[in-house]
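In response to a reviewer's request, we include the raw inputs and outputs for one of the modeled complexes. The three entities were modeled together in a single run.
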Amino acid sequence: MSAEAVMSAEAKANGHGTAGSFAERAHIALNDKPLRANFRRTMDGLMAKRAAQFPDADDLARLRALGAAIKERALARLPELLEQLEARCTENGIKVHWAETTGDANRIVLDIFQSHGVKTVVKGKSMVSEEMHLNAFLGEHGIEAVESDLGEYIIQLAGEMPSHIVMPCIHKNKAQIGQLFADHIEGQRYTEDVDELTAAARRVMRARFAEADAGISGVNFAVAETGTLVLIENEGNGRMSTTLPPLHVAVMGIEKLVETLEDIPPLLALLPRSATGQPITTYVNMITSPRKPGEKDGPREVHLVLLDNGRTRVYADLELRETLRCIRCGACMNHCPVYARVGGHTYDAVYPGPIGKILTPQIAGLDVAEDLPHASSLCNACVEVCPVKIPIADILVRLRREAVRPSASKCVKGAGSGWTLSEASIWAGWKWLHGHPALYRMGTRFLAVAGNLIPSSVPPLKAWTSVRAKPKFAAKTLHQLARDKGFDDV
Amino acid sequence: MSDFHASDSRASDARTRILSRLRAAAPSAVPNLPEWSPPSYEPARRLERFRTMFEAMKAEVHDVDAATWPQRLRTLLDNRGVRSVLHGDGSSVGTQLESAWSGDPQAPRLVAYDRAVEEFKDDLVHRIDAGITSASAGIAETGSLILWPTAREPRLMSLLPPIHIALVEEDSIRDNLPQLMVAQGWARRMPTNIVVVSGPSKTADIEQTLAFGVHGPKELIVLVIRKPAAVG
Amino acid sequence: MSVASAPTAASAPAERPSTVYFFGTCLVDLFYPEAGLAGMELLKREGLRVVFPQGQTCCGQPARNCGFFEEARAVARAQFAAFPEQWPIIVPSGSCAGMMRVHYPQLFADEPDRAQAEAFASRVYELSWFLVHVLNIKLEDKGKPVTVTWHASCHAMREMGVTDEPKRLLRSLSNVTLVENPRERECCGFGGTFSVRQPEVSAAMVADTIASVEATGATEMVTGDCGCMMNISGAMEKAGTSVRSRHLAEFLLERSNNVR
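The model returned the following structure tokens for the whole complex.
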């Protein structure tokens, strides 16, 4: 599926029509008062919960430094560690597959399923599988994949994309969920009672788990040292999907590995607390092999699909490589003042929020996701909380640069696509003025006299003054006042 | 057949291309890992921490002794109307339960997990009220149990029944996970599956409202077998 | 480019300097020169010789943030030339200070004049941090009682390591009641060109900022960054709020000089 098709398909799917730009979609979200209030309240709660889990600033600083170093180390040694992971997994009986594109990955999964006569699949939460649009692909080939995570199940019923990477249906309220269940679950009456709704999901899923021919999952961390897949969750649907059906297929981005088993506890100390303010998730599930002789349950076959989908290109640039440290905790979007106001669907991408703004343009292309790197005030709230210290703001600026480089560099897909003669001319003029102090002083003195005569209707002043009073040029510049007051020049 | 070979060579090409692209990239420095220690507890506070963390997640924690815990469990299960309990076939837990509850027609039915899941999936999925497993260790910091399933105590025992009962020795409760991993030498001997359990199944997906028992057990009962001196 | 050791707060110079440079910033130059002047007066009153090179223009942040790195570097070089001595460079703005201290070394990492950029960057200080940690300024409050609240600048906090220095200064004034704004650390939505590229989102952010400022009941909002001030005060004016907004330097000078 082409990147553009992917992105606008989502826009259609999530009911935001074909609103083309971030600004247009933001407009819709900003005018949805209940949605706005919901996101604001939820993000406030998540920020407070995270803060409560990290009361000691020094300890947190050390832990983040360790988290960053663990991921940096894994990335620095990525090719050898991937080979080691493959070797250990294979020894353990896990079959490893490599896919360059999402199309390749989908076909690999399909081949595995078709050769086993799979008709129904239960799915644990996996952002990579969203990248692949795996459910739709399987559906086209007559294989039904049911999301088992409650949030994912809800949005699957609604035909929507997740609006957050950890809590997929923040954007839905009880009434909407109650209606979805009443409409889609046979015999289920309308209710807004959370326990009843939960029990209904449990009932429906139970039958699915028991009958499914296969389970699909993501991987939070793959351990190269031992060939172990680590999956974390609260509901138990991940364990169900990876234990009950006879076949388990795990899909994973190539960057999701760590070198040693000892790397896991620090990341476990960071991820749940950063994501939802929990000290640990209910379950940490470590899978090292399929069912061994004598064992009474567990899948008989386990497959691991390693997906590239542009990550090797991101890897090729040392600065951009830091994007790949991400452990998908969602803390960045919880703290983002933009995300809190517009919610995940405004980003029209698999990954929303700050991480989405740096990852999506690199995977889909700057030409396709051109407004994402600019949809940020560079406040750095995300940088402050990222458990693996990704310099998100710096990467946003780097992507803005790649977009306007007149000669496209190879590091980023779609580089140079944002270059316009008019903008380049503006900055050339700016450089000329600000690079020549005498000209600058003349220009600013002129503005001090005439600047206030500029009408508000001139763009970009127009955008500014729709919300704010026109800024007033002072009668004298600081340069003039400093001279008047006798401050030394040298 | 030819499809298979074609896809096979496509696959190994993908592997080769992915690895060679990674190797063609500029190398980055391999950092040293900086220092960080997880919390540790005085032995006297360890169990308290363990209990507090579990109770915060709505698990129940009971002090029991090695000989009489089946009677204690009986009371807990009777209060819940539990009629069937799954245990590992030939496990010491199962053996103790059998001898404690045998001859009592009111006691819950004991079911041994003595065959592959395929042979009694229906019972497992729909009809068993509770499953009891041992836990190989506990963690105080996060209020967690280590489940190390074996042929004798399979994985689904602690997942399918709506109530999970876990027995853990007080002595096996460590301060934190890294300490435990090193002490037990996990990296050298990873089993098919390990699960670190820190409470009953939960979700907050519906309007951030906490609900239990989504897919995994709705209740978790932890029985801590106290060291002999502690229990009067 | 590992971020594990990103620069945050400056470390104070070994000795208290006798001379400092002042970098006004282009926003102050054009729109809030009185704030710049106040900063210079505060430093002068502490016994420092304050030098204002007429050759200074802009830190280059707007160009950098739009991805025009060559242009930003060209303008940065003009600043190197304008501030040739080794004196500390005091800046009344966290975002401009952050641009020079944190981003100049990045921008010049592959340039022949990298060493010069790093040397320049190491001399940059945000004003309130400098007043507290280097000058240990003591202020006597000569003004009438007033209730104020503080708005924190994103870059002062997250790039220049300014934590509670401005509030310490405000609290040291005996007739000033500082009311905490629980949302003081939230971005006001300026973000330079962000305010015009994503005007609606920016408007939503500044509306929330105003609401939280008003909710404190303060009559004045004090802030350390003129970008924030232009944004918030402009929005407050359009909304017809009666809360006055001032730059920290201006506020501190006025209170301690009792200029009315």
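As requested, we also summarize the result in words. The helical segments of chain B are 2-24, 43-56, 69-79, 92-101, 121-127, 177-183. Residues 42-225 of chain B form a domain with the Rossmann fold fold (CATH 3.40.50.10420).
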